Amino acid sequence: MTTSTLPRKSFQFPSFSRGFLLWMGFLAVLLVIGLYSAIQVLLKGLIITNLSDAVPWGLWITIDLSAIALGAGAFTLSAIVYIFGIKRLQPVIRLAVLIGFAGYTSAMVTLLMDIGRPDRFWHPWVFWNVHSVLWEVTMCITIYLLILVTEFAPVIVDAPFFDGWTRLRAFGHSLHKFTPFLAVLGLVISLLHQSSLGATYGVIKSRPIWFKPSMPIMFVLSAIAAGPAVTVGVAYVLEWILGKRTVPHDVLRIITRFSGVGLLAYGYIKFWDMAAVTYYGRTPGVSKAFALLQQQTPYTFSFWVGEVILGILVPAVLFLVPRFNKNPAAAVVGALSAMTGIIVHRWNVTVGGLFVPLSYSPGTAFELPIGSYTPAPIEWGVAVLVIGYALIVITLAVRFLPLFEKQEH
Amino acid sequence: MTTQTPKKKTRKKAVVKLTRSDVLKIAAAAAGSIIAAPLLTTGPLSPFGQLKQGQLEGENYAGHGAQTGQYHWGMVINLDQCIGCEYCMRACTATNDVNPEEPWNIVIEEKTSGGHTFFLSRPCLHCQNAPCVEVCPVKATYHREDGLVVMDYDRCIGCRYCQIACPYDARRFNWKDRSDEENPYVPAWGTPEVERRPRGVVEKCTFCIHRIDAGLAKGLRPGIDREATPACVNICPVGARVFGNLKDPESRVSQLIASNPTFRLRDELGTDASVYYIPPREGL
Description:
The complex is a heterodimer. Chain A is mainly α. In chain A, 70% of the residues lie in helices and 0% in strands. Chain A has helices at residues 18-44, 59-70, 73-83, 93-114, 123-126, 133-157, 166-174, 179-202, 214-242, 249-280, 284-296, 299-320, 322-325, 328-355, 377-400. Residues 1-16 and 50-62 of chain B have low confidence and may be disordered. Chain B folds into two domains: 2-41; 55-278, Alpha-Beta Plaits, CATH 3.30.70. Helices cover 27% and strands 13% of the residues of chain B. The longest helix of chain B is centred in the N-terminal third of the chain and has 37 residues, at 5-41. By secondary structure, chain B is an alpha+beta fold. The chains are: A mainly alpha, B alpha+beta. At the A-B interface, helix 5, helix 6 and helix 8 of A face helix 1, strand 2, strand 3, helix 3 and helix 4 of B.
C-alpha cells in the first residue's frame, strides 16, 4: 500500500500495524491460490474436478450449504432484536449482518464456480420454475442478500471514508428505518430457504436416505442454532486481536445460551429422525443404503463424532453450563465445534447420499458401482478462494467500518 | 449505556410511523412486483418470452406431460427378445452424437431371481411425472404436448440437480468440451443428425424428436415409417424395441401393452414412465 492523501476533508488515511499487514499478506496468498484454481476451472471446465455423473455434487455444494447455514446468525439475531423486541442484543446486530453477508456472498461465489454455465447464472431470475426447490432457494438467497446489503448500508456510510458525503450518508441512514420491516421479511425468507436447502434433498424420492420430511427441519434448526454461535465466536476472537471490547459480554453470553438451547432442539429432532426414519421405519432401500455407507465409508464415525458429539453435545455443554458460558475461550471452542458439526452434516448428507447407487433395474445381478469421490486439489483451491474471500470481507469491515462503535465505557 | 436510551426512543417512533403508511406502501409495491414479475419475465410483456415460445408451448405445468394433444409417444421393450447386442446404444450414440463414455441409452446384463440371464436396455423413460422436470430451476427440462421430456440446451445452467433427481440415471453432464473429439461410432452406426451439446449442460435421450417432428411434418407415422422412428428402434436386429403412440389404441405399442404382461421401472415412485417392459418368459 502506498501512502497517498485523499482529497476528502477529515478523512485520514489509516495506519496499518505490522500484524495487520502480515495477515493481509496471508489472505492475499489465499486469494492468489484461489483465483488461479478458479481460472483453471473456468477455462478447462468441470472435467478437472473429481465430480462425476454418479457424484455430481461434492465439496463445493457442501461449502454452499455450510456458508449459508453459518451465516444464519444474521436473520436469527435480527428477528430476536427487531421482532421479539429484545433490544439488549442490538450491539451484536452489525457483526451478525456482516458475517451473514460474508457467508451468503461466499455461497454465491461457490455456486458460480459449480454450475456448468456460469455465464447463465441469471437464468433462474428470468426463467421461473416455481415447482423447483432449487429455484426457490436461488430467489430467496438473492432477495436475502439484498436485505443484508440494505441492513448493512447504514454501517458502510458511517465509515470515516464517507465523512464528506453527507447526502449519501443521509440516504444510508434513511434505510435504517426499514430495519424492522427487513427483519420480518428476512425471517420469512430465511426460514424458507434454510429449510428448502434440506428439502433439496428431502424431496428426491429415488434416494432412500434423503427422502424424508425431517430433512428441511434439521437443516433450518441446525442453522438457527449454530449461526448465532459463529457470531459470538467471531466477536470474542476479534476482541483478542483488537485488544478491546467488541460486543458486551453479557450480550454474547445470552446468545451462546440461546445457541445451546437451539442445538439441543436440533439434537432432539435428530434423535427422533434417527430412531423413527432410519431405525424403526427402515425400508429395504434405507437398510441397504446405510449398510453400504457403514461398510464402505467412515459414515458411522463421522455421524457420531462429527455431527453428534462435536456438532451438538460439546457445544451444548460449553454454551449452557454456567462455568463455561462465562469463559470466552470456551465459547470460541464451542463455536468452532458447532461449525465443524454443520460442515460434517452437510457433507454427509450430500456426498453420503450420492455414494449410494441408484437401483432401478428389475433383475438381481446388476448394481451400479458405488459412488466414489474425494475432492480434487483444484476443488480445494476454489475452497481456499472462498475462505480467503470471506476472511478479507470480515477483516476489511472490522478495520474500516464502525461495527462496534459506542460500546466503549 | 444510559446515554443511549433517548436515542433508542426516537428510533422507536420511526418504527411506529413505518407501520402505518410505509408498510402499506411497501406491501402494495411488493404485491405489484409479484404481479409484474411473471408478466415481465415469462408473460406477454417479457423480452424473453418470445425466445422459445414455439418450443415451450407445452410447459404450462411442470408436472404432467401428454395431457393435451393427440400423441403420447412411448416405447415397449421386450426383455424376452433382447439379445444384448448393444446396437441400440451404438446407433443412438452415432445419431445423437453422444459422448461414447457417457451413453444416453445403456444395455446391462441382468439375472432373474431364478438365475436366467437377460438384458435390460434403458433409454430415457420420458416420465409423465418426471422428477427432472420438477426440480429444474430454470425450466430447461420440460414436457412437450406429446409427453416427451426434452431439454432446452440454451437455457440449462448446468446445476446437475436433474441428474441427482432422476431415479434411472438417465442424464449425462457435459464435463468437457467435445468439439474436437471423434465419435468412434460414426459413420459405421449412423451419422449425427443433431448438434453436439456444449460444455457445461446436462443432456438426455429425446426419443429422436428431430425425426418425429420432421416426419410428422412430412405426413409420416412415427413408429411405422423408419424415417420418423428413433434410431435405437430401427436398428434393433430382433425387433425388441417398439415405438408408437400410446394414445392410439390401434398402435403397436398399445396392442403389445394390451396383450402382454408389462411393467415399468420403479413404478412405485409414481413417475408414470412412457417406456413399458415385457418381462423375460422365465419371469423376473
